[in-house]
Each structure stands twice: as C-alpha cells, then as structure tokens.
Write a structure and sequence with these properties.
6% of the residues lie in helices and 11% in strands. By secondary structure, the protein is largely without helices or strands. It is found in: Secreted, Extracellular space, Extracellular matrix.
Amino acid sequence: MAPLHLFLLAGVFSVGLCQYYDYGDYYAPVSLSTPNCAQECECPINFPSAMYCDNRNLKFIPIVPSGIKYLYLQNNQINEIKAGVFDNVTDLRWLVLDYNQITSEKIQSGTIDKLGSLEKLHFNYNNLTKPPGPLSKSMMDLKMTGNQLSTFPAGTLAGMENLTTLYINNNKLTSESIAGAFKGLKSLMLLDVSHNKLKKLPSGVPSSLMMLYADYNDIDSVPSGYLAKLPALQYLRISHNKLVDSGIPAGVFNVSLLTELDLSFNKLTSIPEINESLEYLYLQVNDISKFELGSFCKFSSPVNYSRLRILRLDGNNLTQGNLPADTSNCLRQVSELIIN
C-alpha cells in the first residue's frame, strides 16, 4: 500500500507544477500473455496481475479471471457493465474505463459496487449522468472527466478518507448539484471542477486541499475567508470566469502558502492584493487599467519584497508606462513580466 500511495502523491504534485497539464499514457504490454487471461486481452508474463483490454474495439467487458488486480479497458466501444464480469476479482485495485460509451443506466448492480478494494477508478469520457456507486471506501484516485454529470449526490464520496485526487471537470455540474459532496474527505489534495456550470467556488472542501481548479465556469466572486479555510492550498485556478472587483473581498488572496493564482480571462479592473510569497500570478485578458505596487508589496526594503517569478498582465489596459518607479525593487525576483 505504501509504495502505491507515494506513487499517487508524486503524480498529484507533478500536475500542479505547471499551468496546464495532460493525462499520462498507460503502460503497454510487450510480452506474451499468461494462460489465465481473457482471450480478448493480454496479461503480460512480467506483470501477471494486470489485464490489458484497451484499444480492441470491444463492445462488452470480458469475464475477468481471478488474480487480476489492474484492469485496463480504455478506448473501446463498451456501453454497459453487466453483472458477473467482476465476480472473480472483487479485490480489483485499478479499473480504467476511459473513452467508452457507458451510461449510468447501463451499470448493473453487483459490478463496480462489489469492488471493495478499488483504489483507482478512471471513468473519463463516457456518458455518465451521475457517479457510479456505491464506491469503494479504499478509493484514492477518482476521475470522471468529460461525461454528462449533472448530479452528484452528497453521499457519493462518504467514507473515502483516503481519496487524494478527484477530477469531475468537463461535465454539467452546478453549484447546487455538488453541495455537500466533499464532506468527510480527509486526504483530498487535488480537486478539478473546471469546465462546468458553477456560479461559485465549491463549498465544504476539506482543509487538506492543495490544488483547486475551477476554470471555465460562471463564478463571479470569492467568499470572504474562503482561502483561510484551506491552509494547505498552493494552486488556485479560476480563469475564464466572470470575476469582478466587487466580488473579490479585500485580502482574500493574501494567504502565505499560495504558490500559483490564475485569475486570467475575467472582468477585473484592478490587481487584487496578494501575499508576498506568491510565485506565479496570471491576470491576462481582464480590464485592468492601473498598476498599484501595494497589491504586491506593502513597502519595499532589502527584506520586504514580492517573491513573484511570473506575472502576466497582457491583454489589459496597461503599458510599461503604467509601472511605478519602484517596481523593479518590489518585483526583484520576477523573471517574466508580460504587459502590453
């Protein structure tokens, strides 16, 4: 358990270190299959607990033989999960179903809900309208990107104290539909709710959260004290929303652990106050027309200055002439300052 947990944590940190990210490829088998393998799939001799059924134009899930812990079924034409397919592997640990055509109504009882040891479930790019369940309390990595999710019942994630990453981006979720969804999650580090229909940042997220992605929604404000309730938060992305100055309470982003803040493609007219420890600030394509050093530094001195490394202000109503004389002293660590 411990090596796998460390592996998942390394993956979480890797996606947080850049502004944009992609999903990684899965290992592809290169050796002969073991005798104990579904004929439609491959079970490498050097990895006999894994069964690879990906990219085979399958329309159904074959009966999975005992001994399989890792099952890869991505990139097929599967549209349902029939009862019995997992009866031999109730101790399955990883299940990857990305890029199929599975609907919520075609997931039969006694299938995924029987997988009590499941730690990783990837259900990206299918036709789900609600999460499958009940799901394993052992879950650590849950991804349902690119479905048709419009509802997310409050008890869906109940008891998942080990859940570390949750991707429910690119769906049809509203703020009301995810209310109470994150209660009781003690280990959640990454939450992606981008590309949905949210009008406010998700409520009730756990204090363990380090990365929150809420780009491409309809959010127009940030509640006062929101970040103060997330003491571990390092990466916050709210780009491509409807943020306005009146929806940004004074000092709401002035928290010491925040490393990256993306407020690009909104409707801000001024630069919000940030903490001097912030390293990456993206404000491109807003309506900002004034540059106030007080947003970055209360005052400048040999020991008081902003730790910003990247500051993007392109696509605003600013030019180099708007920069105050003391800018280079306050922003002495900036390696990239982009302005019109």
